[in-house]
Structure formats: C-alpha cells, structure tokens
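Subject: Sanity check before I submit

Could someone independently write out the structure tokens for this chain? I want to compare against mine line by line before I put it in a report. The sequence has 376 residues.
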Amino acid sequence: HFLIHAAAFVDRDHGRLGLVLPAELLHTDYAAPVRFWLLEHFKSVVLVTFDRSAFKEAQVDALLLLASNDGPKGLHVLRVKDETALASLDLKKAACRPASGEMKRWSGAIDARAEAVYLAFVAGNGVQRLGQVASVDIGVVTGANKFFIMTAEEAQRRRIPPRFLTPILRTTSDTSGMRLLSGETSRLLLIHGKNVGSKMVLRYLAEGERNLVTEGYKCRTRTPWYRVPLPRAKPDAFLPYMNNRAPRLIVNAQHAWSTNLVHGVKLKPKAPKVMALSAAMLSSATMLSAEIEGRAYGGGVLKLETKEAERLAIPAMTAAQEARLVKLFPELDRLVRAGRVDEASAKVDKVLGLDRTRLLEAYSVFRSRRLERKAG
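---
Independent answer below. Compare away.
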C-alpha cells in the first residue's frame, strides 16, 4: 500500500522512486500484483539485494527498490555483499532479468547463472509440480495442542480409553526419516459426540476447564469446545513447512493426522506411488526448486507455505524409474535418518538421470546466500 501510494507522487517522465522494502517483494503471492504493477508503471525497475542482512537485529530481510521511467527498460537485479557496498554502487552492472512465465516470482533473479539452470530444468518435458499430483493443506487445528495432544504414555497414565484417541504427528522434529513410525506419533483426543460416556475423559475435560483451555479463541468459538474438527481426508504424507536442506516428504505409514505445524499431502488419482514421490523430492532438482519457490527468512530458515509447496518442481518418472525408487526407498530412509541426505540425494539423481553437478551448483548459490544471511 505504501509503495503504490508513494509512486503517486513521482513524476511520470523524470521522477524516480527509491524505497527500502522487505525482501518478501521477491517471492510472496500477495506481492504478485505489486510486482506486475511495478513493471507496468515504470520503464526501469532495479532491485539491489544483499547477501548479508542489512539490518542485523531484524528477522526480515531488506532490499532496495529503485524505479524510474528514464532508466534501462525492464527488471534489473544488482546483488551486493552488504550495505557497505552501496557507497560504490554501479547501477550499470545490474543485469536484466526476465519477468514473465516462470519468473513471475523474482526470487530466482538474484543470480543469473543459477536462475538459468532452474529455468532450463522447468522448461523441459521431464518435470511436474507437486500440485499436479497432490494437494497440500494445513493439518489439524486444535486450538490448544498442549491439552488435546499427549504422548501414548500420558494417555495410558490418565486412563483415556483408546476409542477417544487417534495417532497424530505433532511436529516433524518427532520423526527423522522419510516414513512415520509407530513410536513417532502422539495421541489426539478426539470426541465426536456430546455424550462422552467416560469418567476419565470427563475428568480430563474438567481439568481443561479449570486451566482455562476453554478461553482460547478456537475453543470458545466451538460447540462443544472440546470437539476438534478434522480435515476432509487423512494425508498420504507429511511435509515440513520449515526446511534446511531437501524438502522431506514423510510417508504416512501410521494412518495418522498431523497438527497445523505440519503440512498434510494428499495424492491425486494417477499420482506416482507415495514412496517414489518421497524419494524424487530428495533430488537436487527439487532442492533447487525449494530455494526459489520458498521463502528465505533472516534467521536462515526456508519456509514453504501450502501454495509454495504445491509449486515445487519434481522430476517426472518413467514406470521403471518409479519402481526403482520404491525399491530403493528403505535404503533412502535409513540414510536420511542417519543425517546422510547428500548420499540419499545422489542415489535419487542417478536413478532419474539428472545433471547433478549443474543442479547442485545452482542450489548451493541460493542455500549459501540464505545461510550466510543467518550468519550475518
């Protein structure tokens, strides 16, 4: 709103606009109309991005937006080390970038060569988006996770009958592999009707009322307050929305739900087998895609909202490759649990016939910049 308002004061022919803005301008969906408007309203749009955070105490990254109608036409990006480079800034070195098609988001424009590798990959016929084969949605919103979710041991200690409990993945830190094991789930208190019919459950609900669980927003707007609504379908897999390396698609081998701290992934008809899809997402291509489609925050974390997750590019698989990845899945799971993600990724790239060297070089550009800003 402030950007659009500020531009109203700029002379159409010779005026110039310079603003310090959050780096969300590059990649968020809600900024897409603003990105489009900037290129329509100004002949020249220059972005100055920083490898190290310009504001050390801020969690939000910043960039400089320089827009005018008397500069070189198009979108231009100039990447600098930090704010000290501004004293000798040469705008003539800003390289022009495409701003249509796959580059409706500008996050990939930070590095020309890495961007070109990604564009070449997605332009090929051997790629599909996660959203083409699956839907990604938030998990169960309880309104009070500490009350409604408990360990199996706590449920047993409180003598909560099994019919009132269902397995749930509380957070992806509870599992380190690519498939969910029985010992990695918690228990969700699930009451369908108004007639509870269990003294132990009634006692637990009374305890929640005494502890003012009922005063939370979600609980006080539900009738009855303890009836937790479930999504329409149980997910086939889970996907963390906070990532460090490869997006880890966790196969739901326990038929569990997940909290809203974890994305639920439901396969569409004719989708690849879930184990093959999980394996393919370890590829260097999908790792690169996550860096470009996701949001890099000042703390060094890579975040994938549901729509961003659905845009993840995944190598298409032949029937033979899908079968090989399914057979390889147990070994990949062991490697990932042991923290040997690079080894697992290399095995997947070999099966899929990817140019791992080029893809990893491009991936490293974005990941190193993300982690460097954390260090800064």
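---
OP: Matches mine. For the report I'm noting this point. The chain has a mean pLDDT of 89.
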